[in-house]
């Protein structure tokens, strides 16, 4: 019962209870990282007691942050700027812009992206997610706001500086691949290096290595139209990674692919990320994809971010009906991973006798252990340390709080 | 759209009815209301004199420049021609055939060899080389200027709008019309023709370059931006690469346009090319020579089209075993060997010409065929002329005489005529089909007065109203302004004559082409036989069609009419077939399940579904007919085409340009009308 109370506290209030184990619950842009196994501060010996832990890494300086970002289409440019420069609230500005006949596609978005995280940006088509991401790389010029990338104000950057940042530090993958139809796969991958002026032999060697990494060895000389959709996107991924960027944008990279291929590509993406540890902003309209791949999720509607946080936050604490409708049909048991709800054990214990599951396994597989008669389940991280335990009460309250009961 | 009661549609209907009433009044009281019926003499302005004066001033101002350019081009022409003539024909055949083999495969290599040998034995080697000289000099110029213009249009929105408007005019003004001012500027001779070819061939290059550059996918551009492309890199590495296919397609079109205009420009004379030979034969009624030379032109056109298509448009085939340099090295070596070893043993093309023996025989046999068929052709000609062309031209009021139709338009007949048309219009009006009712009334009036007797002011008013209904105030202004400008420059009677010829040919093309299209869509064998015929008609320079027509139907309206029909029927048939074939299967399935007979299916399901395709085909048909107008004038019809042609022979650039612009104006207005109709 104690545990359930903790649950409730954690779920309904957003104030962390000191010393109490809790579910990472993000709020706004200052959310808490609940990513799988990213905290390295606890290195407990196997089958001994893990110290009470905060599932929260040291707060790092965000690699990319934006404040009050606006992109407005249509309307008289000067009037639009005047409205945006006013001190009125966001909703007021939006109303006035629409009255002017303008269409705010990105409306006052503020966001921090931390080093090494995967931020999923979600929303229906027309919600402004692609536009927002393009504003962050200044592919689209925003009307107002601030974008800081590694401490530099991107919107004030001179063209030459911007070009330099793009050449060295940013990579992007596109929904429809954005390949150059007249270049072979290897030349497409080598294109960013060619633009930088690297010598032919060097860039081809690097591109060949990159194609190998994405599993396209042997297809170097194919033209894009000779490749399947999945293969084309592998070329797109290889091209975006060849400059070893710090920040990796993926704009609905798998949406144009068949479901089976999409699944394969998602696995491929996870495999690559495990190797490369990029900071990633990933646009998708598929909640399952977001839940599967992301550390944090931001849901957008009408150019605004409605909620940002972990999968669990969305399932347990949807901000409004819009978000609720988004997650309504999400099979919580499959989407949430054991590591995300496991809590540190109260007292030292020995894991002997208790079934052990991996942190990135779904709750569903944990459930099987309980059905097998276990009283509690020990959750183990990828590096072998213990993430925590899940017991009967925890699972019960989880089932009660999510829609998984009816699923 | 919900509008208050006097909405645009009902206002248009009322206005058109008023215009019709005015027209009837003008017809009834032609004497009193002559200003309504005919363009008053005081109304026209000496626009063509002004144009002439302007061109004269321009040409004297820049005389030295034009002389310099003209001399340079002339020197290049002569040099290139003599170089090409110096190469023995056997060497040329070997190199060209090997080239075609490499570029386009064995089939087209065989066609190349056959064409070359045919040219040699037809005795037109020198003339064909002259034509090739013009093409190979005009083509690079058209490509360079066309591409430069396309790049400019791509980089600036305002330039793009201007270029688009200019190209629209250039592509609709018959090429003959700008030959005349070019002659004034460059003097009589091949250079004026060459420049005209460059001007004529440049639009497809410009259009394709612009479209290709514009159409680079957005994500590709963004990917390049993220890679950090500079502006120059973006253009050279990304956009140009993405546009390559489109530009090569433009190259194929440019080659064909150059050839076709080079053939046309032969009317200027002075270079003894193959087009000149066709024209001369046609003028002298030497049908044997005409057919032989016409076949040369046809073969050249087909060959250039297919080879350039194979080289530029088709998917690249997997590469041959030999690398490109070694293949071309071998080809040059083979040419050299033939030059040294075989060429000296062979007689010159002139000695090999079979034409002196062949042409008279062919001529005689063709003559006897045409005499043998003369009863058929004469009957055909007189029936169509009497019962179709004449009423359209001068109306029943003047053609329905004992001399022509064998009976008179008696008051009783007149009463029946009026009752039939007004009655059916009333019935339609009661069924709420006001547009159709107005159409019937207009048709009745037109049939009565003919195009030549159609009162001009009510016609312009009615068309303007329809333009307003279709495309708003802009289209109304274009229609009124354009037609008034034609009237003011004194080309109204010619325009009405052309309108009659166009109407007759277009009606025929719609009926026959539509029928062929339906048949082709329903029966695969029809489609299969029609395709090469259509290809053939679209590839050969329109000039060549004239020869058999003159042969069988002599010079006159009827031959012009047939020439236009032959050219205009192709798009109608093509688009109809395409439109019917692309009707979604679900729609025709739904029709089947609803129990349609096949005719019901065609008229109730397929035609409505294919409507916009068919209207586009109709638009293409009108454009083709307009383009053919000036060519058809060569076989002796009157109208705007003839004005252009006469202006050419009198070197009256003002008249030529204005008549040409009138054609362009009609083309532009009808194009806008058709497009609006297609989306409505």
From TrEMBL, chain A:
<dbReference type="Pfam" id="PF00005">
    <property type="entry name" value="ABC_tran"/>
</dbReference>
<dbReference type="InterPro" id="IPR003439">
    <property type="entry name" value="ABC_transporter-like_ATP-bd"/>
</dbReference>
<dbReference type="InterPro" id="IPR027417">
    <property type="entry name" value="P-loop_NTPase"/>
</dbReference>
<keyword id="KW-0547">Nucleotide-binding</keyword>
<feature type="region of interest" description="Disordered">
    <location>
        <begin position="30"/>
        <end position="60"/>
    </location>
</feature>
<protein>
    <submittedName>
        <fullName>Glycine betaine/proline transport system ATP-binding protein</fullName>
    </submittedName>
</protein>
<comment type="similarity">
    <text>Belongs to the ABC transporter superfamily.</text>
</comment>
<keyword id="KW-0067">ATP-binding</keyword>
<dbReference type="GO" id="GO:0005524">
    <property type="term" value="F:ATP binding"/>
</dbReference>
<feature type="domain" description="ABC transporter">
    <location>
        <begin position="89"/>
        <end position="327"/>
    </location>
</feature>
<dbReference type="InterPro" id="IPR051921">
    <property type="entry name" value="ABC_osmolyte_uptake_ATP-bind"/>
</dbReference>
<dbReference type="InterPro" id="IPR017871">
    <property type="entry name" value="ABC_transporter-like_CS"/>
</dbReference>
<dbReference type="GO" id="GO:0016887">
    <property type="term" value="F:ATP hydrolysis activity"/>
</dbReference>
<dbReference type="InterPro" id="IPR003593">
    <property type="entry name" value="AAA+_ATPase"/>
</dbReference>
Automatic annotation (TrEMBL), chain B:
<feature type="transmembrane region" description="Helical">
    <location>
        <begin position="655"/>
        <end position="674"/>
    </location>
</feature>
<keyword id="KW-0813">Transport</keyword>
<feature type="transmembrane region" description="Helical">
    <location>
        <begin position="411"/>
        <end position="430"/>
    </location>
</feature>
<dbReference type="Pfam" id="PF00528">
    <property type="entry name" value="BPD_transp_1"/>
</dbReference>
<feature type="transmembrane region" description="Helical">
    <location>
        <begin position="436"/>
        <end position="457"/>
    </location>
</feature>
<feature type="transmembrane region" description="Helical">
    <location>
        <begin position="132"/>
        <end position="155"/>
    </location>
</feature>
<feature type="transmembrane region" description="Helical">
    <location>
        <begin position="247"/>
        <end position="267"/>
    </location>
</feature>
<feature type="domain" description="ABC transmembrane type-1">
    <location>
        <begin position="495"/>
        <end position="674"/>
    </location>
</feature>
<keyword id="KW-0812">Transmembrane</keyword>
<feature type="transmembrane region" description="Helical">
    <location>
        <begin position="107"/>
        <end position="125"/>
    </location>
</feature>
<dbReference type="GO" id="GO:0043190">
    <property type="term" value="C:ATP-binding cassette (ABC) transporter complex"/>
</dbReference>
<feature type="transmembrane region" description="Helical">
    <location>
        <begin position="287"/>
        <end position="304"/>
    </location>
</feature>
<keyword id="KW-0472">Membrane</keyword>
<keyword id="KW-1003">Cell membrane</keyword>
<feature type="domain" description="ABC transmembrane type-1">
    <location>
        <begin position="128"/>
        <end position="308"/>
    </location>
</feature>
<feature type="transmembrane region" description="Helical">
    <location>
        <begin position="175"/>
        <end position="202"/>
    </location>
</feature>
<feature type="transmembrane region" description="Helical">
    <location>
        <begin position="542"/>
        <end position="570"/>
    </location>
</feature>
<dbReference type="GO" id="GO:0031460">
    <property type="term" value="P:glycine betaine transport"/>
</dbReference>
<dbReference type="GO" id="GO:0015226">
    <property type="term" value="F:carnitine transmembrane transporter activity"/>
</dbReference>
<dbReference type="InterPro" id="IPR035906">
    <property type="entry name" value="MetI-like_sf"/>
</dbReference>
<protein>
    <submittedName>
        <fullName>Glycine betaine/proline transport system permease protein</fullName>
    </submittedName>
</protein>
<feature type="transmembrane region" description="Helical">
    <location>
        <begin position="469"/>
        <end position="492"/>
    </location>
</feature>
């Amino acid at each position: 019962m104690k545990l359930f109370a903790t649950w409730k506290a954690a779920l309904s209030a957003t104030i962390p209870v000191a010393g109490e184990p809790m579910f990472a619950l993000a709020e706004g842009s200052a959310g808490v990282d609940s990513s799988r196994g990213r905290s390295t501060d606890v290195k407990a010996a196997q089958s001994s007691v893990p110290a009470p832990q905060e599932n929260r890494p040291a707060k790092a300086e965000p690699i990319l942050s934006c404040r009050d970002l606006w992109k407005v289409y249509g309307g008289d440019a000067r009037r639009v700027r005047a409205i945006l420069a006013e001190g009125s609230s966001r909703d007021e500005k939006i109303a006035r812009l629409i009255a002017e006949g303008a269409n705010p596609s990105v409306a006052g978005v503020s966001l921090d992206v931390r080093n090494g995280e995967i931020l999923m940006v979600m929303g229906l088509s027309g919600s402004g997610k692609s536009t927002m991401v393009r504003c962050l790389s200044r592919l689209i010029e925003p009307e107002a706001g601030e974008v800081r990338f590694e401490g530099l104000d991107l919107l004030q950057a001179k063209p030459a500086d911007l070009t330099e940042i793009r050449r060295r530090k940013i990579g992007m993958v596109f929904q429809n691949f954005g390949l150059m139809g007249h270049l072979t796969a290897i030349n497409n991958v080598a294109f960013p290096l060619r633009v930088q002026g690297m010598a032919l032999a060097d860039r081809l060697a690097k591109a060949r290595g990159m194609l190998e990494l994405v599993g396209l060895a042997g297809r170097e000389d194919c033209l894009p139209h000779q490749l399947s959709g999945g293969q084309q996107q592998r070329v797109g991924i290889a091209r975006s990674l060849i400059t070893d960027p710090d920040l990796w944008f993926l704009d609905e990279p798998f949406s144009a692919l068949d479901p089976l291929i999409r699944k394969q590509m998602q696995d491929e993406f996870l495999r690559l990320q495990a190797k490369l540890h990029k900071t990633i902003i990933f646009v998708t309209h598929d909640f399952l994809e977001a839940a599967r791949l992301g550390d944090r999720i931001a849901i957008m509607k009408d150019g605004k971010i409605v909620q940002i946080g972990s999968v669990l936050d969305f399932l347990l604490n949807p901000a409004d009906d819009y978000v609720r409708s988004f997650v309504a049909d999400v099979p919580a048991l499959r989407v949430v991973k054991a590591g995300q709800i496991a809590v540190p054990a109260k007292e030292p214990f020995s894991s002997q006798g208790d079934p052990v599951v991996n942190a990135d396994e779904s709750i569903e597989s944990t459930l099987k252990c309980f059905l097998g008669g276990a009283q509690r389940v020990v959750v183990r991280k990828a590096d072998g340390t213990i993430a925590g335990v899940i017991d009967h009460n925890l699972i019960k309250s989880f089932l009660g709080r999510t829609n998984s009961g009816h699923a | 759209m919900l509008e208050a009661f006097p909405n645009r549609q009902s206002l248009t209907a009322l206005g058109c009815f008023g215009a019709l009433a005015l027209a009837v009044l003008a017809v009834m009281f032609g004497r009193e209301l002559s200003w309504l019926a005919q363009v008053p003499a005081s109304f026209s302005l000496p626009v063509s004199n002004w144009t002439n004066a302007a061109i004269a001033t321009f040409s004297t101002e820049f005389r030295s420049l034009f002389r310099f350019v003209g001399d340079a081009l002339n020197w290049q022409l002569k040099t290139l021609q003599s170089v090409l003539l110096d190469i023995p024909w056997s060497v040329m055949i070997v190199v060209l055939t090997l080239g075609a083999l490499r570029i386009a495969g064995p089939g087209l290599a065989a066609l190349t060899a056959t064409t070359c040998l045919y040219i040699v034995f037809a005795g037109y080697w020198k003339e064909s080389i002259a034509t090739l000289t013009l093409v190979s000099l005009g083509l690079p110029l058209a490509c360079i200027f066309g591409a430069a213009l396309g790049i400019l249009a791509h980089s600036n929105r305002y330039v793009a709008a201007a270029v688009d408007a200019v190209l629209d005019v250039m592509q609709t003004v018959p090429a003959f019309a700008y030959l005349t001012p070019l002659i004034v500027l460059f003097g009589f001779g091949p250079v004026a023709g060459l420049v005209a070819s460059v001007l004529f061939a440049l639009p497809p290059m410009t259009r394709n370059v612009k479209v290709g550059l514009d159409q680079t996918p957005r994500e590709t551009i963004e990917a390049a931006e993220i890679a950090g492309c500079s502006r120059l890199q973006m253009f050279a590495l990304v956009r140009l690469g993405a546009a390559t296919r489109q530009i090569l397609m433009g190259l194929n079109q440019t080659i064909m346009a150059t050839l076709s205009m080079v053939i046309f420009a032969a009317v200027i004379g002075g270079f003894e090319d193959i087009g000149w030979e066709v024209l001369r034969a046609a003028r002298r009624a030497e049908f044997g020579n005409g057919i032989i030379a016409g076949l040369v032109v046809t073969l050249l056109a087909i060959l250039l089209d297919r080879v350039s298509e194979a080289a530029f448009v088709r998917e690249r085939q997997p590469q041959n075993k030999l690398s490109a340099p070694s293949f071309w090295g071998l080809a040059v070596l083979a040419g050299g060997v033939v030059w040294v070893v075989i060429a000296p043993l062979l007689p010159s093309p002139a000695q090999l010409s079979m034409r002196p023996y062949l042409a008279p025989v062919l001529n005689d046999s063709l003559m006897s065929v045409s005499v043998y068929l003369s009863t058929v052709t004469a009957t055909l000609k007189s029936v169509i002329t009497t019962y179709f062309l004449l009423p359209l031209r001068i109306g029943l009021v003047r053609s329905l005489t004992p001399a022509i139709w064998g009976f008179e338009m008696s008051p009783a007949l007149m009463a029946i005529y009026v009752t039939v048309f007004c009655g059916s219009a009333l019935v339609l009006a009661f069924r709420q089909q006001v547009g159709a009712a107005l159409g019937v009334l207009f048709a009745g009036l037109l049939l009565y007065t003919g195009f030549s007797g159609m009162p001009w002011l009510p016609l312009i008013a009615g068309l303007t109203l329809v333009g307003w209904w279709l495309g708003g105030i802009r289209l109304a202004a274009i229609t009124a302004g354009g037609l008034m400008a034609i009237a003011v420059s004194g080309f109204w009677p010619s325009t009405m004559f052309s309108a009659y010829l166009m109407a007759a040919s277009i009606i025929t093309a719609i009926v026959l082409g539509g029928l062929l299209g339906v048949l082709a869509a329903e029966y695969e064998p029809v489609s299969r036989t029609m395709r090469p015929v259509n290809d053939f008609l679209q590839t050969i320079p329109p000039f060549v069609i004239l020869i058999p027509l003159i042969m069988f139907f002599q010079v006159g309206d009827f031959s012009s009419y047939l020439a236009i029909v032959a050219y205009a029927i192709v798009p109608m048939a093509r688009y109809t077939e395409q439109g019917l074939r692309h009707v979604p299967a679900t729609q025709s399935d739904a029709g089947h399940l609803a129990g349609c007979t096949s005719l019901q299916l065609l008229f109730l399901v397929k035609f409505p579904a294919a409507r916009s395709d068919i209207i586009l085909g109709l638009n293409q048909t009108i454009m083709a007919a307009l383009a053919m107008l000036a060519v058809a004038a060569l076989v002796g019809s009157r109208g705007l085409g003839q004005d252009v042609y006469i202006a050419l022979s009198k070197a009256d650039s003002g008249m030529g340009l204005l008549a040409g612009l009138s054609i362009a104006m009609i083309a532009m207005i009808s194009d806008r009308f058709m497009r609006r109709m297609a989306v409505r």
